[in-house]
Amino acid sequence: MKKDYFVYLLTDSSRTTFRLGVTDNLFRKLYQPRIKQLRPDRPILHLVYYEQYPDALAVIIREKHLRQMNPEQLTQLVNEWNPTWENLQPHTVPTQLL
Predict the structure, then answer these.
(1) What is the pTM of this model?
(2) CA-CA-CA-CA torsion for 47, 51, 61, 36, nearest 10 degrees?
(3) What is the pLDDT of residues 33-51, one digit of tens each?
(4) If residue 5 lies in a helix (H) or strand (E), which one and from where to where?
């Protein structure tokens, strides 16, 4: 079975903190940690950007490129791709779970 890989960008509700990561299962990566986040000292993070790649090397190269960007450049990237900063997590639910 062919795997897909994702590079993703999470942010807090005030859009001041970015968390960049790579995974082969975006749904699992986003929903499993939610239980741990239900504490006042941990901000809830929202998925505001992601890209899908067919192989691991391509996603790692893209992640390294994104890590070189400063916060203003990441903000511009999200503004171009997701201008309303909508939380994209509901769009990552596999169709078999709907």
Answers:
(1) 0.81
(2) 30
(3) 554 555 555 566 889 999 9
(4) strand 5-11
